[in-house]
From TrEMBL:
Keyword vocabulary terms for this entry: Membrane, Transmembrane, Transmembrane helix
Pfam families reported for this sequence: Fung_rhodopsin (PF20684)
Span of domain Rhodopsin: 43-287
Organism: Neoarthrinium moseri
GO cellular component, one term: membrane
Parts of the chain that traverse the membrane: 27-47, 54-75, 108-128, 140-160, 191-213, 225-252
The protein's name in its UniProt record: Rhodopsin domain-containing protein
Signal peptide: none
Subcellular location per the Swiss-Prot or TrEMBL entry: Membrane
Membrane topology: Multi-pass membrane protein
Compositional bias annotation for Polar residues: 308-329
Family: Belongs to the SAT4 family.
Record lineage: Eukaryota, Fungi, Dikarya, Ascomycota, Pezizomycotina
Chief subcellular location: membrane
Annotated stretches, region: Disordered: 306-350
Length: 404
């Protein structure tokens, strides 16, 4: 009798106070992700618009991805009101119906959010490898872009048309009379989407490192650039964890609670991927911050103020012949694109021999003049003036090299 009484009283407990409740974690994580992603994207657009003046297609994809990922996190926060994070037996029936409706919206937005995030990286790669004349690299970039588009649209329309009529996909799967694909088929589609995504993420991680390794000699800067792109390893790990959960968890048995377990990894995959896509564009700001806090000995990689022609240590220097500069002092190419804006080939060194100007020591930056003197002595008749002893240049006497 006691067990029966406890069983009947369980649904009357507010789901926010139920055992193992995780709704607060889902809410806090997504609020933090929205704030961090908004800040990083704002910095990216500021650098590209006002510092490097190099807005591109990759920025457009990043803005579209940002809209989808913020909407995804907003739906995750909203689903907490419908019982996300609580065991389903503690969630009232009407809220469960709203939860399934929100879950469908989350899935559809997730496809476009991750797809646009990956396309922003694909659109960035040609800017990174402008001087890399490799047909294989270009074919790989375009091939990956096509795979991303096909994967995104294919999975989106499959999920949208799982039920006939389409509007039934927003109903609870246990509703009688539904004409929909089985939950096992839907789960297989999600596993396939995640598996292809892992392979794409691995390729998007390997291609930038290939470019940097090809165009830069071993140096501290090369290691730093590779570490920036290596943040994408976390996206790979996130995808692997997510696919394991898709294969092992039985979602329909306790969907509201299980989604609070896999949901954070879904959100992290998209947001962290967009961070990785934005980090290279933030190089000018990162360079200034590193200089201000003492992590760099000079603001510019060639240790020179482009406005005054002085070196970073305050000494005078001969003005370098090179690309034109914008009014705010950043190096610009003839097309107006920053030659070192952190988002193009300025990330890597293309100097002759692969030597970076920032790695030269002070002796190498000085201008040396080497004079070789060849002295010869000849006998001449006494009293005869040799024409070669005293010549005239512009009407003025000039000393012979032997008199130096």
């Amino acid at each position: 009798m006691a067990n029966s009484s406890n069983t009947t009283s369980l649904p009357t407990i507010p789901f926010q106070e139920s055992p193992d409740y995780k709704g607060h974690e889902v809410l806090s994580l997504n609020a933090a992700l929205i704030a961090c992603t908004s800040f990083i994207l704002a910095l990216r657009l500021y650098v590209r618009s006002f510092m490097s003046k190099a807005l591109g297609v990759d920025d457009l994809f990043a803005v579209l991805a940002y809209g989808c990922l913020v909407a995804l996190s907003a739906f995750e926060i909203r689903s907490v009101q419908f019982g996300s994070g609580a065991h389903i037996q503690f969630v009232p029936g009407p809220l469960v119906a709203h939860f399934f409706e929100s879950l469908v919206n989350n899935t559809l937005i997730y496809f476009f959010g991750t797809g646009l995030m990956r396309l922003s990286i694909v659109a960035f790669l040609p800017r990174l490898a402008q001087d890399l004349t490799s047909p294989i690299f270009n074919k790989l970039v375009y091939g990956i872009g096509i795979v991303i588009i096909v994967q995104t649209l294919g999975c989106f329309f499959y999920r949208l048309t799982e039920c006939t009529p389409i509007k039934d996909i927003w109903l609870v799967p246990t509703t009688p009379g539904l004409n929909c694909v089985s939950p096992q088929q839907e789960n297989s589609m999600m596993v396939g989407h995640q598996a292809v995504g892992i392979m794409i993420d691995f390729a998007l991680l390997a291609l930038p490192i290939w470019v940097v390794h090809t165009k830069m000699l071993f140096s501290q800067r090369k290691i730093q650039v590779i570490l920036v792109f290596s943040v994408g390893v976390f996206v790979l790990v996130t995808g692997i964890i997510r696919i394991v959960m898709l294969k092992t968890l039985l979602f329909l048995e306790d969907l509201t609670f299980n989604m609070s377990t896999i949901g954070p990894w879904t959100d992290l995959e998209g947001h962290v991927g967009l961070w990785c896509a934005s980090f290279p564009a933030l190089q000018p700001i990162l360079r200034i911050v590193a200089y201000k806090i003492g992590l760099r000995s000079a603001l510019y990689s060639y240790d020179k103020d482009p406005k005054s022609g002085n070196t970073g240590n305050g000494t005078s220097s001969v003005k370098w012949a090179g690309p034109s500069r914008s009014n705010n002092g950043y190096v610009r190419k003839g097309s107006g694109i920053d030659a070192d804006d952190g988002s193009e080939k300025g990330i890597i060194s293309s100097n002759e021999g692969g030597i970076e100007l920032g790695n030269l020591n002070s002796m190498d930056r000085a201008i040396h003049r080497k004079v070789e003197v060849d002295v010869s002595v000849e006998e001449a008749p006494r009293g005869k003036r040799l024409e070669q002893d005293y010549g005239h240049i512009n009407g003025k006497p000039n000393q012979n090299w032997a008199d130096l």
